[in-house]
Specification:
Chain A: This is Mitotic spindle assembly checkpoint protein MAD2A. The complex is a heterodimer of chains A (about 210) and B (about 800). Chain A is of the alpha+beta class and about 210 residues long. Chain A is built from four helices and eight strands; from the N terminus they run H-E-E-H-E-E-H-H-E-E-E-E. Chain A is globular, with a radius of gyration of 18 Å. In chain B, about 85% of the residues lie in helices and about 5% in strands. The two termini of chain B are about 130 Å apart. Classes of the chains: A alpha+beta (about 210), B mainly alpha (about 800).
């Protein structure tokens, strides 16, 4: 009996892509927070994702914050208004910015918001997308080897670079870009959902 | 006074009084009595009580005689004591209250005591219980311990028993071991004896073996002898062996010889066989030779036959050839027969043709008869001649045509040249027309300009009073319009230039080519430059893109397109806020603790926390207030400073201006005193002093300089009361002196010419006149005076000339 070969088409919609990207941000941010020791390791639990064992925070406040922010980012991604997401690690005592984890978001060629609204869909195997995401997270983990030790009380903040015409929700406000004056940049790998392309990069303060 | 009778008396009187007042109302009396009585009983008025309770009989006994007097006594007492009784009552009440309070106090104490007693009891009970519990615990402990001891004892007994057992077993084992030892010793002894026996046996055997050995040695000697013999025998055998070897060699040689002989024999046998074969052949030949004659005969016969056959074969060949020839001839003849038929047909055709030709010739040549060949030939010759003449004429015609064609070509060329010339002329005409147009335009412009100028001139002529601004405005407007026209002209010119360029490009003259070459060169240069620039720009672009990339990596963005948002309630903000709160609380705590330490050091001990709180609160407030006030003060100070600076600057300017305008430097030395130093003063010692009195009037104070100027003071102050006039007069005088000095010293100066012939007096008088002229204005205000002076100084030269005249007039007077 020869089975009928069913054709499987990988279709990625704008919403699906936004979902994938925000999910990646969730795990990426959690990984950074764990790897950089912004929160104590015992406030993390592990979870299987992208074929890796990733650490996810159990701190209720952080969880709530991330849920809020990522939900908003997802909305903006669907509207095609996000340009960049930046995780800033700051020294609480001196308010000096120590690290910037930047995720540059671009629409792939031919997938501008207008055509996506008209129902254009990307086609890329989910496994390949997840493999690319896994590679980025692995690189984030590997960055710990060369990044300077954070031996002070640190806190993080998420900056979202959006278009100027975006509607700012009530709980959101404009922020300074939090540059590092004396910084070294390292470009990380990137991934693409065939709709969005995300380039990762970390810049950190060089010790004098 | 006696103490004891007094209260009783009082009481009695009180009783009586009450009875007297209340009459039958027993209740009130009783109640009032009850109160007092009870209080009395309660109070420790033991003496009074006693007297009340014990004395009545004596009282009752006594007053029998004096039943009336008590009333008078009472009254007496009343009159005597009056207020005293009330006072005493009050005192008693007070005492009573005191007593009550003491009672309550005592009760409280008792209560306390009871409480403490109860507490103590409870505590003691508790302790007792604790002790009991302890006892019980101890008992349990003891029991436990006893139990343990018992256990230990039993264990001990068990151990002892075990010990005994072990000892027993030990003893047993020792016994066993001893018995074993004995048995082993016995065995050892027996073994020893056995071994001794064995050694003896072995010694015997050794002896036997030694004897045997000797025997064997003898036998060996014998065998040696035997071997010697055998050796000898062996030598002989060897000799024999050598001999046999030699003989063997010989045998081999012989064998070889034998083989050779055998081979020879075989050869010989072969030869013999050959001989036999030959013999057999010989015999066969002999037989064949005998048969030879008959064979020869047969041969001859056969030769003859052969000859005959050969002849016949030649004949047959000949016949065959003849036959072949005949056949060929037949064939040829057949072919000829066929040809003849054809030829005859052809001949008919030719005949027809000939006839037709002849007819044609007849027709053509218009011969009456059939022409003969000769006639035809002649005719043809004639025709040929005619033909020749005709061809010649054709040739001539061709030549003439060629010449005509050449002529036409030349004419066409001329025509073209002429056309070109015409074109050129037309171009020139066009250019000329353009030039004319331009010139016309220029003419138009010029005429317009001329008209405008004329209008302007007309306006000039028309209006005697010229309003410059309007005229200039008009002029400007017109000029602007002309400018616009010129601009248009320029545009047109540029367009024309473009057209010209185009036409020049279209045209293909060598000059233009040269120009074009030059232009091409310049364009190439430009191209190279442009390329170089492009390269530079691309490099720059690359650098800039790199920079942009690095900047984007750093997080830079375009604020026109992008804005940065973040969740307000983010972990960083929370952490920062928390840290600040912590810091604040810590600082507060620190301050409180510091205050506490201070207070402790000062020796305060009670209510420390309260005081600390108070102090911190007040200090905090006062600190804040102080800080605010300090800030205010500093801001005020800075403001003040700025104002002062501004004032200083302004006043400096003012003074400068006044000094320059009036020629006087005004300093205020003391209060209300002003020192005026003239610009032209000979020394700094020459100054005037003025004082402003309380009622606002000026007074001239005496100085060496003022006393020197007494004359002027007399003129202007004493008679005219004008300070400005005095000051101006002094200025003029000093100025005159100085300029004169400069004149004498032959130094340069503006006033040289004018002041040449002027006398000092004349000058003075002149100033007086001029000042008098202005006096009306000057008296009003000092400012006006200053302006007057200013004007004077500004228009020094003309003024002086006028003064000169005036001076002359005065002189004449």
């Amino acid at each position: 009996m020869a089975g009928t070969k069913q054709e499987t088409r990988n279709s990625i919609t704008l919403k699906g892509s936004a979902q994938l990207v925000s999910e990646f941000f969730y795990f990426g941010i959690n990984s950074i927070l764990y790897q950089r020791g912004v929160y104590p390791p015992d406030s993390f639990t592990y979870k299987q994702q992208y074929g890796l064992t990733l650490f996810v925070t159990t701190d209720e406040k952080v969880k709530e914050y991330l849920d809020n922010v990522l939900a908003q980012i997802k909305d903006w991604l669907e509207a095609g208004q996000v340009q960049r997401l930046v995780l800033v690690v700051t020294n609480v005592d001196t308010k000096e910015v120590l690290e910037r984890w930047s995720f540059n978001i671009q629409h792939e060629a031919g997938f501008d918001p207008q055509s996506l609204k008209e129902g254009k869909e990307g086609n890329k195997d989910l496994k390949i997308i997840q493999k690319e995401m896994r590679d980025v997270i692995r690189q984030i983990t590997a960055c710990v080897t060369f990044l300077p030790l954070l031996d002070c009380v640190c806190a993080f903040d998420l900056l979202v670079y959006t278009h100027t015409d975006v509607n700012v929700p009530e709980k959101w406000g404009e922020s300074a870009p939090c540059f590092i004056s004396n910084s070294q940049e390292v470009r990380l790998k990137s991934f693409s959902t065939s709709v969005h392309k995300v380039d990762a990069c970390v810049s950190y303060k060089i010790d004098d | 006074m006696d103490e004891s009778p007094e209260p009783t008396v009082i009481m009695k009187t009180l009783k009586d009084f009450n009875q007297f007042i209340s009459g039958g109302s027993n209740k009130g009396r009783e109640s009032s009595f009850g109160v007092t009585g009870s209080s009395r009983q309660r109070l420790s008025f033991s003496e009074a009580n006693a007297s009340v309770t014990s004395d009545p009989l004596s009282f009752l006994g006594e007053p029998g005689a004096e039943s009336l007097p008590p009333v008078s006594k009472k009254r007496h007492y009343d009159t005597l004591t009056g207020l005293d009784v009330c006072k005493r009552f009050r005192d008693k009440d007070v005492e009573l209250l005191d007593a009550k309070s003491t009672i309550t106090m005592l009760k409280g104490r008792l209560h306390n005591m009871e409480v403490t007693y109860k507490r103590n009891q409870a505590e003691s009970e508790q302790e007792l219980e604790n002790y009991k519990r302890k006892q019980i615990r101890d008992k349990e402990l003891i029991d436990d311990l006893q139990h343990k001891i018992k256990q230990l004892q039993t264990q001990h007994q068990e151990y002892q028993e075990e010990m005994r057992k072990v000892k027993h077993s030990c003893n047993r084992t020792t016994h066993e071991v001893e018995s074993r030892l004995i048995s082993l010793q016995n065995e050892h002894l027996s073994e020893n004896s056995r071994l001794n026996e064995e050694t003896t046996m072995l010694q015997q055997r050794v002896l036997e073996l030694e004897s045997l050995l000797e025997e064997k040695i003898i036998e060996a000697e014998n065998s040696q002898c035997h071997t010697d013999e055998l050796m000898l025998q062996l030598e002989t055998v060897e000799m024999k062996l050598r001999e046999s070897v030699e003989s063997q060699h010989q045998i081999e040689v012989l064998e070889l010889q034998l083989k050779q002989a055998k081979s020879r024999i075989k050869d010989l046998e072969l030869k013999q066989e050959e001989y036999a074969d030959i013999e057999k052949q010989r015999k066969v030949f002999e037989v064949s030779v005998s048969k030879l004659s008959s064979v020869e005969r047969e041969n001859n016969k056969l030769k003859e036959e052969n000859k005959f056959l050969n002849d016949t074969s030649i004949n047959t060949k000949l016949l065959e050839e003849q036959l072949m020839n005949a056949k060929q001839k037949i064939m040829l003849l057949e072919a000829r027969c066929e040809d003849v038929a054809n030829i005859q047909a052809k001949a008919d055709l030719y005949k027809n043709n000939l006839k037709q030709y002849e007819d044609i010739i007849m027709d053509e040549l218009s011969l009456s008869q059939k022409p003969t060949l000769l006639e035809l030939r002649n005719h043809i010759a004639k025709l040929k001649k005619e033909d020749k003449s005709l061809t010649e004429s054709i040739n001539e015609l061709c030549a003439s045509q060629k010449t005509l064609v050449i002529c036409r070509m030349s004419v066409e060329k001329e025509n073209r040249d002429l056309n070109a010339k015409v074109d050129k002329q037309q171009l020139a005409i066009q250019q000329n027309t353009q030039i004319i147009k331009r010139l016309q335009r220029k003419l138009l412009l010029l005429t317009q300009e001329r008209d405008r100028l004329r209008t302007i001139l007309g306006t000039y002529e028309a209006e005697q009073t010229i309003n410059f601004s309007i005229v200039s405005q008009e002029k400007i407007d017109k000029l602007e319009s002309t400018l616009d026209l010129y601009r248009e002209e320029l545009k047109l010119m540029e367009e024309e230039l473009d057209e010209f360029y185009k036409s020049s490009i279209e045209g293909s003259q060598p000059l233009q080519r040269r120009e074009r070459g030059v232009r091409v060169l310049s364009l190439e240069k430009k191209l190279e430059e442009a390329q170089a620039e492009v390269r530079r720009l691309t490099q720059e672009n690359e650098g800039l893109t790199d920079k942009v990339e690095s900047l984007t990596l750093k997080g830079d963005y375009n604020p026109a397109v992008t804005k940065v948002l973040h969740f307000k309630n983010n972990p960083l903000a929370e952490a920062v806020e928390k840290r600040e709160n912590d810091l604040e609380t810590l600082q507060k705590e620190n301050n409180a603790l510091r205050e506490r330490v201070k207070l402790l050091e000062e020796g305060e001990q009670s209510d420390l926390t309260l005081k600390v709180g108070m102090k911190v609160a007040t200090e905090g407030n006062s600190n804040k207030d102080i800080l605010e006030l300090q800030e205010q003060i500093s801001s005020m100070e800075t403001r003040n400073k700025r104002l002062m600076e501004a004032f200083k600057k302004k006043s400096q300017e003012m003074r400068e201006a006044i000094y320059l305008l009036t020629g006087y430097r005004i300093d205020s030395t003391n209060e209300n005193q002003y020192r005026l130093t003239n610009m032209y003063a000979e020394s700094s010692e020459d100054y005037l002093m003025f004082e402003l009195t309380a009622d606002g009037q000026l007074q001239l104070l005496e100085t060496p300089f003022s006393s020197a100027q007494e004359e002027l003071v007399d003129i202007y102050l004493t008679s005219k009361h004008s300070f400005p006039a005095l000051l101006s007069a002094i200025t003029l005088e000093l100025f005159g002196k100085q300029s004169m000095d400069s004149l004498y010293s032959a130094s340069e100066g503006e006033m040289e010419g004018e002041l040449d012939e002027l006398d000092e007096n004349i000058l003075k008088r002149a100033t007086v006149v001029s000042l008098q002229r202005n006096n009306v204005h000057e008296d009003d205000e000092e400012d006006d005076d200053m302006e007057g002076e200013e004007e004077e100084e500004e228009e020094n030269e003309p003024g002086e000339e006028e003064e000169e005249e005036d001076g002359d007039l005065i002189c004449l007077d």
